[in-house]
Every structure is written in structure tokens, then in C-alpha cells.
Amino acid sequence: MLEDKLKKHIDLLIKRYPMLESCKADIISGYLILEDCYAHGGKLLIAGNGGSAADAEHIAGELMKRFKTPRPVPNELKEKLIKIDPIRGENLAKNLERPLMAIPLVAHEALTTAYINDVDGLGVFAQQLYGFGKKGDVFLGISTSGNSQNIMSSTVVARALGIKVLGLTGALGGELSSVSDVCVKVPETETYMIQELHLPIYHCWCLMLEDHFFGESQ
């Protein structure tokens, strides 16, 4: 069930992008999977190719630090930081921000190129998911076609480990839509147009997560 205070983010998203009304229910369901993951100590692992790889990095950047809402660290940690180092600790206590852990699987060049060169190009994200992932995490696979084979290999590992699969695709959904716990299929079929709709959706998810975990009622 979506909290009342979070509905404003969905309402604004649909107001700005009316064509997303067709996948509104899946956007909400996708958010609830993410909320439950973080509420139980999980993390988000994200992968995509090309522009979707950039989206994976973008999402992690919004979640690992403040997006809009201040995220001060707990007083207990502030006290420990200052006790360990009064000067540096004071600065860290003031400037650190609570994260929502998100790992873009596109970002580890030495690991990814070594695996591609030594083992298997199509398993490059699956290998990282096996290494970083655990039951209760969420894998977000971004594929405009829904048929990216390195993403599909990752979904096999995710399901084997008890990691939920969240898909972000175009209107056709592809194979990814058939294996995802939730798949948001935006109503476009041209790659760049699909990507243009992915961004406001994941921005909305990030805003909602931040509001839920770090908003005024927290």
C-alpha cells in the first residue's frame, strides 16, 4: 500500500508525463518492491547497456546521497566520529549523508573487462550480481528492448539467489518482462524515446524512497 504522502510524487509524474498513465500501476508496484528491500536492509543492484548504463550510474548517484531531502547521519555516529578525530570527525559529522545502498554493475572497469576478456562477455553483470548480491536485494535491469542478453543472464542468477527482479523496458517488454517480478514497460518503441521516459520514472522512485526514509515524519 502506497503511503498518502508519497502519492504526490506519482501524481506529479503523471501530470508531467500523461502517457505514463498506462504503466502507473507498475511504477507504484516497482516502488513498493524497492521500499520493502531497503526497509529490510537490502540494496539495489543496477545494470544496463549504453544509455541505460548511464542511467544505472545516475540512479546510484541519486540514492547514495541526498537527492532533495537532507539526510543527516544519526547522532550516535556523529559522536563516534568526533570522538575518534575531533577535527575531521566534526567535519564528517556535518557533511556525511545517509545512503540508500545502490551498486551500478556497469562501474567496475577492471573487474568487468577482466571477466569479459578471461571468461564470458554475456555473464559480466551476472558475475557481479553473484558477488555483490544476497537474498532480499533487488536487481534493476534496464533494457529498452527487454532482450539484452547480459541482463537476461543476470536475471537467472538473481532468481537463483532470491533477489527480486525489477525491469525497465519499452512497450514491447521483451523477454525481461516475462521473468521480472515487476516490469515497467513505457509506451514507446524507439530507443531514445524509451530512455527519455525511463529517467522521470527512476527520478520519481528516488524521490519517493527519500521521502519515505528521510522525510519529515522520520
Automatic annotation (TrEMBL):
Alphabetized CDD domains for the sequence: SIS_GmhA
GO molecular function list: carbohydrate derivative binding; isomerase activity
PANTHER family for the chain: DNAA INITIATOR-ASSOCIATING PROTEIN DIAA, SEDOHEPTULOSE 7-PHOSPHATE ISOMERASE / DNAA INITIATOR-ASSOCIATING FACTOR FOR REPLICATION INITIATION
Source organism superkingdom: Bacteria
Swiss-Prot/TrEMBL keywords: Isomerase
Listed name of the protein: Phosphoheptose isomerase family protein
UniProt record, GO biological process: carbohydrate derivative metabolic process
Domain annotation SIS: ranges: 34-218
